[in-house]
Write a structure and sequence with these properties.
about 180 residues, phosphoprotein, transport
Length: about 180
């Protein structure tokens, strides 16, 4: 598709050309109609994290880090699986907000458990290793998922669901660090 308009070609002869659905101006780098929606959805997802942060902070000591991590990941897996049942844009946005609000509790629990599991002398190395693994997984996920989205939406949903369920079950096997003296 090229962006040519008849009024741009004054004193020119245009042969064998048809102009359909003409829009005025340059649409290569201006705001499209759905750009505002993209930012709004991102804002709502970021806003949904706030209640999750507050709830996880209040219940981290009462429920326990391991149960918060495992439970949050399993509930996040349920949110991911519910994407199969969502056919409207508002349902998908609501599930994204629910996912963001629930999954942040797992991240908070992981941060606390990581500090409590590793001794001070090895903590920086452990954080570096875990962050490197997270970055590698993010790069792999960002490059692999788009190739599946074009084929079917089932593959990314099932991969995310399986990863979250496995992560939640493995997290429940972590040692409980409540009431233990830090090294």
């Amino acid at each position: 598709m090229t962006h040519l308009w008849e009024e741009k070609f004054i004193d020119c002869r245009i042969e064998n050309t048809t102009f359909e659905h003409n829009k005025q101006g340059c649409h290569l780098d201006t705001v499209e109609e759905n750009d505002v929606l993209i930012y709004l959805v991102s804002f709502l997802g970021s806003l949904a994290v706030l209640p999750g942060n507050i709830i996880s902070a209040l219940f981290m000591e009462k429920i326990g880090r391991v149960k918060i991590i495992g439970g949050s990941m399993l509930i996040s897996a349920g949110c991911t699986f519910l994407l199969f049942l969502s056919f409207s844009q508002s349902a998908i946005i609501a599930l994204q907000c629910l996912f963001c609000g629930v999954s942040v509790a797992a991240w908070n629990g992981i941060q606390v458990v990581t500090v409590e599991l590793f001794p001070t002398s090895k903590r920086a190395t452990a954080f570096g290793l875990l962050n490197a693994l997270c970055k590698l997984a993010a790069v792999l996920g960002s490059s692999i998922f788009p190739s599946f989205v074009g084929v079917t939406r089932a593959v990314p949903i099932l991969l995310s669901f399986a990863a979250l369920v496995c992560g939640g079950l493995v997290a429940l096997r972590l040692p409980d660090t409540r009431d233990k003296i830090l090294q």
